[in-house]
Structure formats: structure tokens, C-alpha cells
Automatic annotation (TrEMBL):
Residues 150-173 are annotated as: Disordered. The active site is at 210 (proton acceptor), 232 (proton donor). The keyword Transmembrane does not apply. It holds the Pfam family TP_methylase. Its EC number is 2.1.1.107. Keywords: Cobalamin biosynthesis, Lyase, Methyltransferase, Multifunctional enzyme, NAD, Oxidoreductase, Porphyrin biosynthesis, S-adenosyl-L-methionine, Transferase. One of its GO terms (biological process) is siroheme biosynthetic process. It comes from Salinispora tropica (strain ATCC BAA-916 / DSM 44818 / JCM 13857 / NBRC 105044 / CNB-440). This is Uroporphyrinogen-III C-methyltransferase.
Length: 417
């Protein structure tokens, strides 16, 4: 077959696609077909566990047998992913007779359609055909993906995928196109931001950053991006939050794409909810991009899993910023003391003596292992191992300071060799 390939974007939603074969190739092809909303008929005597999971979940229909000619009834496309070349050729012949495009894993030259190497960035899909050489296609695809990830360029203006209430959904930017993304920056290691968070950051025109966000992420911003350092807003905490809300709303209503970059996850002691409500109240659409929270990642950074089989069946994340003996405390520490699992305390260093004493008083054994992790996942990470009874004294002696988490429970030694 000669002639250069003619690229198309197939809109497969609700349309029958037949996949023949249940092995590794079919497994790799399947997610994109399902993502496109195709009505997939999978014909194969056996399936890989991943394909089986799709079938069990009802995402596709599985015929547990070999291919039959009638399988192509009503099909728009067939993907042949079988090892046997003569079987593949036979399916391909039937597809040809019925004028159904046929992708063949075993013989690209005999196929009537090729699958490109693909990268997706928000609403943009880049598909690369390598002139019959899939490795060339993948190399070009990777280069394009890196280019797109490096800066807004062709993706500017930003995609309008901002749902009005935090869940990614249909776009409805402000009349002038502005919107806010509440993005979790992760615990400290700049590589622990999500792919979506990073993309929105590269597309932002305004970035309002918290004290705890990884500085390297900010270094990468284009010079024309307005960077607002939320830590430098010169009011008390309550006024500062109002001020931040106002900045988000004002910039978005002026038509700008704003990223509110927050340490860890925006909704874990991050006041993300207040910012979402302020934006929603002003008619500004918001996308929420969850982040990797320090509650889990700083522990992991110190080699501590927050759960471990046969050690802990629960983990509880609690803020220690209010002392247990304060009337303002909303935490029932006496109940937490009765739990056997893992307790992760954020913002707890200042009150650690009172917290640990309360937990011991109400029944958590003083010998329970504890670890304190300062600046977890960063190059400056510091860790001390201790026990609940003496952890506060150990923190003072070691001179540990915020940001730090305290993890209490038998998981602390669970991975010790
Ligand atoms: C206002 S809370 C914000 C938590 C954040 N939203 C999250 O999900 O990680 C700040 C507290 O998070 C904890 N924290 C944040 N980053 C940390 C890190 N890299 N290492 C240890 N603790 C961290 C500390 O307890 C700090 O006082």
C-alpha cells in the first residue's frame, strides 16, 4: 500500500470498535479507546488481568472465544492484536471487504490504519506518525510533549476546563476568560506536583504562592508572570486570607488565569475551601487540583508508611496548632489516645509537649514509636526517631522547627530491616 497516511481524529463515542486479542498489545490500546467513549467489543479466549478488570467493570463487552466474521457487524474500526499472522490476515480481509479500517499490530504494512504516538495536554492532542517507524514517532512525540510541558506557547490562552465547583468539568470562565486553579504543589520536592498542576502553572498569568511551596517551581515561571507571595501580605492571618481571596477574585475578573499554589494538598489544612467559596461567590470558576499531602509524603520521605499490613489499619491526620488544654481545641485528644493505628500530627511542634502528655494520660503507651520529619521530601529534610513519652524533649534537644509532621504509631519501625 503506498501514499502518505491521511491523519484524522476519530470521534468514537458510542461507536463500535472491535478489538481482537487479549494480550499486551490490546491492553495498551484499550485505555485510549475507552477514553474516547468507544463501544468496545473485545474478542479473545483469554485476557490479561487489566483487560479482565475492564470487562468485569462493564467498560467493554468481552466475547470469550476466537474471532467470528459477524463480530464486525456494525463496527467502525477494528484493532487486530493477535500473535498469529494468518488469523490477523483473515480478520483484515473481512474488514477490507466491509470497508472497515483495520489496525494490525503484527503487520503495519498490511494495515489500513496506523495508531500514532500520542501526547495529551489538557484539551490538546498531538498525534505523531513516524512514517512506519513507531520508535521515531515516539521520539518526536516525547520531544513535543517536553516542549508543551516547558511553557505555554501554543497552549496559550489557557484551556477552559475549569468547573465552577472544583471538579474538572465543562468550562465557564468569567466573561473576560479569567479563572482560578487551586493547585496543590506537593510537600516540598518540586517533582511531587501533579502533571495537571504543573501544566496549569506553566500556563498561569498570575501565581499566588504560599510560604511552603517549593521555590524551584517558582523559579521556572516566565518573567511576565505576576507572582504574589501570600506569605508577605502585611496583615494578621484573618485579614491576610481575605486579602488573598480578593486578589484571586480581582485578577480572575480582570480576565487573567490565576494559579493559587498551595503546599501539599489545598484541602488539607490549606484553607482551599475558603478560597473556593470566595471565588464561587464572585462568579469566578475554579478548578481544584489535589496535591500530594505532607501528611503522607513526609512520612514516606522518612521511610515510614502511614499504614502497613498487620500493623496499622487506620491513620488519622490531625492539626496540633491548638493545644489540647485550650478551650478553642476541636480535637478529642482523649479519643485519639484510644486508637491503635497511626496518628499524623501537622502543625504540632509548638504544642507537642501538651499533645504527647495528653495522649499518654489517656492511654496511648509512652513507648509508642514516634518520628518527627522536618521539611520532608526536600534536600533539607531532618528526621528524629523517638517515642511518644519523650518526643517533645527530643524535638527541643535536636532544635527541630516547622514545617514538620509528627507520626505516632508502630508503623514508625515497620520498614526497619
Ligand atoms: C498549613 S499546613 C498545610 C498542609 C498542606 N496543605 C499539606 O497537605 O501538606 C502546614 C503544615 O504542614 C506540614 N508540612 C508541610 N510541608 C511539610 C514538609 N515538607 N515536611 C513536614 N511537614 C510539612 C507541617 O506540619 C506544617 O506546619
Amino acid at each position: 500500500m503506498s501514499g502518505s497516511p491521511y491523519p484524522l481524529g476519530l470521534r468514537l463515542a458510542g461507536r463500535r470498535v472491535v478489538v481482537v486479542g487479549g494480550g499486551v498489545v490490546a491492553t495498551r490500546r484499550m485505555p485510549a479507546l475507552l477514553d474516547a467513549g468507544a463501544d468496545v467489543l473485545l474478542v479473545a479466549p483469554e485476557l490479561t488481568p487489566a483487560l479482565r478488570a475492564h470487562a468485569d467493570a462493564g467498560r467493554l463487552r468481552w466475547e470469550r472465544r476466537r474471532f467470528a466474521v459477524d463480530d464486525l457487524d456494525g463496527a467502525w474500526l477494528v484493532q487486530v492484536a493477535v500473535d498469529d499472522p494468518s488469523a490477523a490476515a483473515a480478520i483484515s480481509t473481512v474488514a477490507d471487504e466491509r470497508r472497515i479500517f483495520c489496525v494490525r499490530a503484527d503487520d503495519r504494512a498490511a494495515a489500513t490504519a496506523w495508531t500514532p504516538a500520542v501526547t495529551r495536554q489538557g484539551p490538546v492532542t498531538v498525534a505523531v506518525l513516524g512514517g512506519g517507524d513507531p520508535r521515531r514517532a515516539m521520539a518526536v512525540r516525547d520531544a513535543v510533549r517536553d516542549l508543551l510541558a516547558a511553557g505555554p506557547g501554543p497552549l496559550d490562552p489557557p484551556p477552559a476546563d475549569a468547573g465552577a465547583r472544583g471538579v474538572p468539568g465543562p468550562a465557564r470562565p468569567t466573561r473576560r476568560g479569567g479563572h482560578v486553579a487551586l493547585v496543590g504543589a506537593g510537600p516540598g520536592d518540586p517533582e511531587l506536583i501533579t502533571v495537571k498542576g504543573r501544566r496549569l502553572l506553566t500556563e498561569a498569568e498570575v501565581v499566588v504562592a504560599d510560604r511552603l511551596v517549593p521555590g524551584l517551581l517558582l523559579d521556572e515561571l516566565r518573567p511576565e508572570v505576576e507572582l504574589v507571595d501570600a506569605a508577605k501580605i502585611p496583615y494578621g492571618p484573618a485579614r491576610a486570607q481575605e486579602e488573598i481571596n480578593q486578589i484571586l477574585v480581582d485578577r480572575a475578573l480582570a480576565g487573567r488565569s490565576v494559579v493559587r499554589l498551595k503546599g501539599g494538598d489545598p484541602y488539607v489544612f490549606g484553607r482551599g475551601g475558603e478560597e473556593l467559596l470566595a471565588c464561587a461567590g464572585a462568579g469566578v470558576p475554579v478548578t481544584v487540583v489535589p496535591g500530594v499531602t505532607s501528611a503522607i509524603a513526609a512520612a514516606a520521605g522518612a521511610g515510614v508508611p502511614v499504614t502497613h499490613r498487620a500493623v496499622a489499619h487506620e491513620f488519622t491526620v490531625v492539626s496540633g496548632h491548638v493545644s489540647p488544654d485550650s478551650s478553642a481545641s476541636m480535637v478529642r485528644w482523649e479519643h485519639l489516645a484510644g486508637l491503635r493505628g497511626t496518628l499524623v500530627i501537622l502543625m504540632g511542634l509548638k504544642n507537642l509537649a501538651a499533645i504527647s502528655a495528653t495522649l499518654v494520660t489517656y492511654g496511648r503507651p509512652a513507648q509508642t514509636p514516634a518520628v518527627v520529619v522536618q521539611e520532608g521530601t526536600t534536600g533539607a529534610q531532618r528526621t528524629i526517631r523517638s517515642t511518644l513519652g519523650v518526643v517533645a524533649a527530643d524535638v527541643t534537644a535536636a532544635g527541630l522547627r516547622p514545617p514538620a509532621i509528627v507520626v505516632v504509631g508502630d508503623v514508625v519501625g515497620a520498614l526497619d530491616l
